[in-house]
């Protein structure tokens, strides 16, 4: 995840998968998500917090990109 001066956030493919999993599977903990993707709890918390603060139209765009990644690579969870 990279934050540019104009506060645009660029998410990696893993970040998008974490966001998608967080948003559409609310009954799991951040620890479960971190273990699933092999990242730290801190990264999951940071990525999801940043995502929650984005504007609605940007949020929808990111979720569509994440869904496309799942369909392309491994199927939706």
UniProtKB/TrEMBL annotation:
Q: Which InterPro entries match?
A: Lambda_DNA-bd_dom_sf (IPR010982)
User: What are the recorded GO MF terms, alphabetically?
Assistant: DNA binding
**So which domain of life are we looking at?**
Bacteria
The molecule here is called DnaA-like protein
């Amino acid at each position: 995840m990279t934050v540019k001066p104009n506060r645009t956030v660029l998410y990696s493919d893993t970040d998008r998968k974490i966001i998608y999993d967080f948003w559409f599977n609310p009954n799991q903990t951040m620890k479960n998500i971190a273990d699933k993707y092999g990242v730290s709890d801190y990264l999951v918390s940071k990525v999801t917090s940043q995502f929650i603060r984005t504007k609605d139209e940007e949020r929808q765009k990111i979720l569509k990109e994440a869904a496309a990644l799942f369909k392309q690579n491994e199927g939706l969870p």
